[in-house]
Design goal:
The complex is a heterodimer of chains A (511) and B (340). Chain A has 511 residues and is an alpha/beta fold. Chain A contains 17 helices and 24 strands. Chain A is globular and about 70 Å long. Classes of the chains: A alpha/beta (511), B mainly alpha (340). Bound molecules: adenosine-5'-triphosphate and magnesium ion (MG).
Chain lengths: 511, 340
């Protein structure tokens, strides 16, 4: 760095204290214009907190922040916005009941005569913004509720770009995107870089970082470990800096599993417009993967099975017995648990404690003579928290105060604690670091190993391949094939998902 | 596995978890700090304040409000803000009770309670199942209910002693009975409601379900909770408590009238919010609400002792309401919980 260069962002000795946690501990952090600067660290390292500081979320941080060489006080989101900071949050922050246009143009809706919203201008400006993220085809007046989560994620980026930021922060922008969408996003990032924007990029997906980042800063326990050019580091060195100790990569040995009785069978399940004529079964000790591109209808299928959405036709058999499941509570009563893909809006109640969240499906079980006692479930809570290594290891902590990865662990813990016979997991490791991912995978394997059936829906191909004994490929609401263990690889799943399974010469079977 | 467990332990050592003690205590006691402050203020202002009879007066004055607030707090807790048809439920249940007095006191009270609960049931179904906006819906119910009462009774009051015969005395004395010699029945009922309310809210499955719904409706639904039924239950529970208060109020006024219960809606929300329950649900408890009710009682008493008229008193209450909502929002933001 030569002294004359003006930095887009220069944070000097910044700290942020939460009650009980020093989340960011005197960190120096510099970002140059026109670079993509990755921020890496374990779950809870303080990445999101550092970024929330420049987004103006806290009025009580310490240390100095300079933007384009000018000292700034970022005490409110409005102040941060005015200084050109744009933030794409780890968790979606769009208002669900409002339209895309209202969200994208929030705070700067064009008006006619200063009073009435100018619909025409709204439409044009929104489409202009959406085009920048490749979503020009969306109806600007559709509600956020009506579009998919992946689209919502891109809309969120469009919204942020609409304010013409000079610093763009992306906190795990790709955790809910498919490969194609990630490619699209990287294209967008490349463009923005050329326009001189400084981009800060948080992700746990290391290969992605090598693809997109110019420099990388590693954080651990609230402190900065170092900043490097991307060609100075390797995956291994990054992981070691993240966890703070040497790692050895011994592979998990795979044993040939023996499957037990059939736990769940689905026949000709159909929900018009979402999935069609779906049949499959899953047995004890088995992990069944469901692969496919986003929008293939995988989450909708899961929701149909657990009764969250009504199905039009088809039958569900549990342990060979036909069973009608009309609601989530009936699914639970039949031993089926469903981990939703969207942890913030459907998975966890962020305002209550870890313990209360984990015990929330078990209220009935822990009620005796009309009195509910959380004490009765305490040992279960502590056991799953320990197994999943939730940090902080204190069940009374409010879930909203946990880092994203730890929230995901609590979400899994909530369903594991119900001791389900069939566990359906929708994107089970969204937003967790490499170490935590292994912990979660271990738990999934243990659960299956104990005679339960697990269904995994994941857009993370290595994960799908590593976990599954069998993978069903879904496309446009239909199962188009199946890959079994020996034939499973990232390439084969990807090809099949794109409907090019025939190129795999005989590896794909009609289902 | 083992090494990563160790890493976890190290982390705990690196970052201490000392919760800001004073602020957490204040947070917990919350409203009772205010209660004590008002009591000190009262003692300074007037020698009459710190007497047993004045205290009994204060509590008696807020007994009916306490009953209502204990019930309505379940609606707030469930994230449905408040029942704006509280005055309507109070007036209606009272009028029906008076109107049916000729069949005896038991029938009269049962009919009164059924009327109130029926309104609660309707509210519960429309808000719970049909997902109407709770404030707008219950406001319309209040409006329609009020109109109905005026039409049905031709805008007149009805009097227990005219309608009731022998049961009339019992009815009128309901709110004038002392138990154990000196404690008014309404105070006993209010305390019982608070104790029961706290128990149901914190120690039963229903209470926990309401809390989860208040914390996040979607999550509760995806966790297998029958959200419609539980929300409906909260409205019925609230209406039941409200109609009991309504019957006492009618007994106290010796008059059944469509305007009975006016103002109880706003006073109840104020008590609930001062008591530490945030309007978006899932936070606080009934013990706090009791504190909120006491604050309202003490405030009126102290202001009356100073000689502030009732009109100005309601302005003060309004200002406190706004301040509490503001302070709550701010402190939650400080803690980084702007999801509130
Ligand atoms: N509002 C809060 N109150 C108290 N503690 C908090 C709060 N928000 C975050 N923390 C704590 O601060 C630390 C850093 O959290 P942060 O969210 O910044 O982690 P992160 O690096 O973004 O992790 P992840 O990769 O899991 O998203 C964690 O220990 C977390 O528990
Ligand atoms: Mg984070």
């Amino acid at each position: 760095m030569d002294g004359k260069e003006i930095l887009s962002l220069d944070m000097r000795g910044v700290s942020k204290q939460f009650p009980g946690t020093l989340a960011v501990d005197s960190v120096d952090f510099q970002v140059r214009p026109g670079e993509v600067h990755a921020l890496l660290g374990e779950n809870g390292a303080g990445k999101s907190t550092l970024m929330k500081m420049i987004a103006g979320s806290f009025s009580d941080y310490t240390g100095d922040i300079y933007i384009m060489g000018e000292k700034v006080e970022l005490n409110s989101p409005a102040a941060a916005k005015a200084k050109g900071v744009g933030m794409v949050y780890q968790e979606l922050s769009l208002a669900m009941p409002l339209t895309i246009a209202e969200n994208v143009l929030a705070g700067r809706i064009p008006t006619k005569g200063k009073i009435f919203a100018d619909k025409k201008a709204m439409k044009d400006q929104t489409i202009e913004c959406l085009k920048r993220v490749g979503l020009g085809h969306l109806d600007p007046f559709a509600c956020i509720k009506e579009i998919s989560q992946q689209e919502a994620q891109l809309v969120e980026i469009a919204k942020t770009l609409g304010n013409n930021p000079s610093i763009l922060v992306m906190d795990e922008p790709t955790s809910s995107l498919s490969r194609e969408e990630v490619k699209l996003l990287f294209g967008i990032i490349d463009n923005l870089k050329k326009q001189g924007l400084a981009i800060i990029y948080i992700s746990h997906h290391l290969p992605e970082l090598f693809e997109v980042a110019d420099r990388i800063t590693i954080m651990r326990d609230g402190k900065k470990i170092g900043t490097y050019n991307i060609d100075e580091v390797t995956t291994k060195s990054l992981v070691e800096m993240m966890v703070g100790r040497p790692v050895d990569d011994t592979a998990v040995e795979v044993q040939n599993k023996v499957f037990g009785e059939e736990k769940l069978r689905v026949e000709h399940l159909t929900r018009h417009g979402f999935f069609h004529d779906i049949s499959f079964n899953v047995r004890a000790n088995e992990v069944l993967g469901i692969g496919g591109l986003s929008g293939a209808g995988r989450s909708e299928l899961a929701r149909g099975i657990v009764g969250a959405d009504a199905i039009n036709s088809g039958k569900i058999y549990i342990k060979g017995k036909e069973t009608k499941i009309r609601s989530m509570s009936e699914a639970l009563a039949n031993g089926i648990a469903y981990l939703t893909e969207n942890r913030k809006t459907q998975g966890l109640a962020l305002r209550i404690s870890i313990g209360e969240n984990i015990l929330s499906p078990l209220l009935k079980k822990h009620t005796k003579n009309g009195i509910y006692s959380a004490k009765r479930g305490e040992s279960d809570v502590l056991a799953v928290m320990k197994e999943l290594q939730v940090y902080p290891p204190d069940p009374t902590v409010t879930v909203g105060n946990l880092s994203g990865g730890n929230q995901q662990k609590v979400l899994l813990g909530k369903w594991v604690a119900t001791k389900p016979q069939v566990l359906i997991l929708d994107e089970p490791t969204r937003g967790v670091d490499v170490g935590a991912k292994m912990v979660i995978h271990d738990t999934i394997r243990r659960l299956a190993g104990e005679g339960n059936a697990v269904i995994v829906i994941s857009s993370d191909l290595p994960e799908l391949v590593a976990l599954s004994d069998r993978v069903k490929i879904m496309k446009e609401g239909k199962f188009i094939g199946e890959l079994i263990k020996g034939d499973l690889s990232e390439e084969s799943v990807l090809l099949a998902a794109n409907g090019e399974g025939d190129k795999l010469s005989g590896n794909i079977y009609a289902s | 596995m083992e090494t990563s467990m160790q890493a976890n332990k190290e982390k705990i050592d690196v970052r201490k978890r000392e919760v800001g003690k004073i602020s957490s205590i204040i947070n917990k006691l919350g409203v009772y700090v205010l209660v004590i402050a008002l009591m000190i203020l009262g003692t300074i202002i007037s020698p009459k304040f710190l007497t047993a009879s004045n205290f009994m007066n204060i509590i008696q004055a807020v007994s009916l409000l306490g009953m209502v607030a204990a019930g309505v707090s379940f609606i707030t807790y469930s994230g449905n803000f408040v029942d704006m048809s509280i005055p309507c439920i109070m007036a209606f249940s009272g009028m029906i009770a008076v109107d049916t007095l000729r069949y005896g006191i038991v029938v009269s009270i049962v009919c009164g309670l059924l009327t109130g609960s029926a309104i609660g049931l309707i509210n519960g179904i429309v808000v719970g199942k049909l997902k109407a906006n709770p404030i707008i819906w219950t406001l319309s119910v209040a409006f329609v209910g009020n109109g109905f009462m005026r039409w049905f009774y031709s805008g007149k009051q009805i009097y227990p002693d005219v309608k009731g015969g022998a049961a009339a005395d019992v009815f009128i004395n309901l709110s004038r009975t002392d138990v154990f010699g000196r404690i008014p029945l309404i105070v006993i009922v209010m305390i019982t409601f608070m104790v029961l309310g706290q128990f149901v809210m914190t120690k039963t499955k229903f209470g926990k379900q309401v809390k989860l719904i208040g914390s996040s409706y979607e999550v509760a639904k995806m966790t297998g909770i029958n959200v419609n039924k539980v929300v409906c239950g909260a409205f019925i529970l609230s209406a039941l408590a409200t109609s009991i208060a309504g019957i006492f109020l009618t007994s106290l006024a010796k008059t059944g009238a469509f305007y009975n219960g006016e103002g109880y809606d706003f006073n109840a929300v104020t008590a609930i919010v001062i008591g530490g329950m945030t309007l978006n649900g899932g936070r606080g408890d009934v013990v706090g609400v009791l504190g909120g009710v006491l604050v309202i009682g003490l405030l009126s008493n102290v202001m009356t002792l100073i000689g502030i008229n009732t009109f100005s008193q309601s302005i003060v209450k309004g200002i406190i309401f706004i301040a509490v909502v503001g302070i709550n929002a701010r402190s939650l933001r400080k803690l980084g919980r702007d999801d509130a």
